[in-house]
Write a structure and sequence with these properties.
This protein is mostly helical. It folds into 2 domains: 32 residues, no CATH class; 39 residues, no CATH class. 60% of the residues lie in helices and 0% in strands.
């Protein structure tokens, strides 16, 4: 996971709207918890609702591929 410094570097490369969404509700003083890939995948799946035709793993891979291409 990203450190606060890495998050700041990443956010500097995001469009303003995405930047706002990225930091919405984030408080760096709050303790962090251990995150697991499974929890992330479930969260993404829940965001899509009942779209059964979407391959969540492929969707996640596509987003990360896009980020890798456009963010240094």
């Amino acid at each position: 996971w990203l450190s606060p410094e890495e998050m700041a570097d990443l956010s500097a490369q995001l469009p303003t709207l995405i930047w706002g969404i990225y930091f919405e509700g984030w408080n760096p003083a709050e303790p962090t918890w251990e995150r697991k890939k499974r929890d992330f995948v479930i969260s993404v799946r829940n965001s899509f609702g009942y779209e059964a035709e979407i391959d969540i793993d492929k969707a996640i891979a596509a987003v990360f591929k896009l980020l890798d291409r456009h963010i240094s």
